[in-house]
TrEMBL record, chains A, B:
Protein name in UniProt: Transcriptional regulator
InterPro entries linked: GAF-like_dom_sf, HTH_MetabolicPath_Reg, Tscrpt_reg_IclR_C, Tscrpt_reg_IclR_N, WH-like_DNA-bd_sf, WH_DNA-bd_sf
A Pfam family annotated for this UniProt entry: HTH_IclR
Gene Ontology molecular function terms on file: DNA binding; DNA-binding transcription factor activity
UniProt GO BP: negative regulation of DNA-templated transcription
Residues covered by the HTH iclR-type domain: 15-76
Domain IclR-ED: 77-251
Organism in which the protein naturally occurs: Rhodococcus rhodnii LMG 5362
Amino acid sequence: MVTHNRRMANSRSGDSVLERVLRILEAFDTSAPSLTVGALARRADLPQATAYRLVDTMVRHGFLDRSFDGRIRPGLRLWELVTRCYPARDLHDAALPFLQDVQSVVEQHTQLAVLRDGEVLVLERLSSPHSVVNQASVAFRMGVHETSMGMAMLALSSQEAQERYLSEHKDADALFPGGLRRALAEVRARGYASLDGFQDAGTTGIAVPVLGRTKHAVAAIGVVVPTGTTPHAIIAVLRAAARGIARATDEDSASSFNEN
Amino acid sequence: MVTHNRRMANSRSGDSVLERVLRILEAFDTSAPSLTVGALARRADLPQATAYRLVDTMVRHGFLDRSFDGRIRPGLRLWELVTRCYPARDLHDAALPFLQDVQSVVEQHTQLAVLRDGEVLVLERLSSPHSVVNQASVAFRMGVHETSMGMAMLALSSQEAQERYLSEHKDADALFPGGLRRALAEVRARGYASLDGFQDAGTTGIAVPVLGRTKHAVAAIGVVVPTGTTPHAIIAVLRAAARGIARATDEDSASSFNEN
């Protein structure tokens, strides 16, 4: 997401500063949750002197935290400010009790996600110590046609959004017997999506859409179970939870960030 | 947290821009999770023209989201970047399965918190539809001596941190029979804190510290139950969970943000 199309410095609008702040925040990921300023400068493609100066400013304002050994992380103060009122919070808070119910019955990873920029963005994930391996993680993204949650949302998106996705992902056809369009039609007919081993071998994702008033998906909930698990009871539990979440969610706020 | 001690504009370091960005993010709270730009300008104490310009820039970079009706919220992209690697994430992720266990047994609000800037910062909160009323909410703060989680952490903080808190909160003595110092000694002797109705009438908070290697608190977990609930089983469940969280947490990362 780093943009190399740099604008001219414009201190009045703050454009250049915010672009650099964004590049610094984008430099962190699970493989590098904390960084030295030198490593941060390289990953954010900023001159060392610029990085040192900007990191100092960001630490001073709570955008970054500096630990005792000098390493830098995104700031707890920034987390606090954003988490209070981020756009998906109403949906997340409404969904959490239902996710707990699903997790306590299925006893495997239980997730909530939305579509964002043509990708699946994971909003919440509940696990158990004995859950199967799964790479999904809160605030990370996955491919739409590579996850059951993505398929559940895409199949219940507007015709326009589906056609756009199909035209941009012609390579996905090879992954589904009969192609992606037919796979989506099957998800729509069944009311759930099931994908074997796309994320991790030996695991199956099962997901259902959370439908808004227009009967398009505003989110999806899903579980990851060992491949071969009988899905019927799981699908029933997920469907009941999805209905509960839809009822508990203020749709106007939910549909304002899910892009379908 | 808004600083009115404004520095001179310094476009090289980005200080003035980040200060304004911070004031904009601080303007949102649960009573105003989304705002018009005009209201945002007033709450952030910024000239309208400055606010319009900066909001445009922040929306362009994903720091803010603008909904179809023009109202502004903190951005989902910013949430995503910060949530991936915020300093308390390791602690949060390690604690979540234990919080689920406690919540499924006690069936009342179950929370995880740390000390920050002399306040209790709530990191997670699991609830049930039939839980009692409680005002605590993820990413919000509460007073240390007004919450059982705060008392559990303060009582197990360093002598120095406790003395500093006691000298800065002499008014708290009137709230505890025998004073705050004695109340803290009791929490330490018992290993848990219990407070009736400080946050909401008819409710009791019960909390235990999560201890680090130095036997100081790195966090606290607590539940909110109807006043009069027999606490013994709850305390046993909380203690077992706190030990599990301590074992599952990388203490170096935990102790780097809890200030005690």
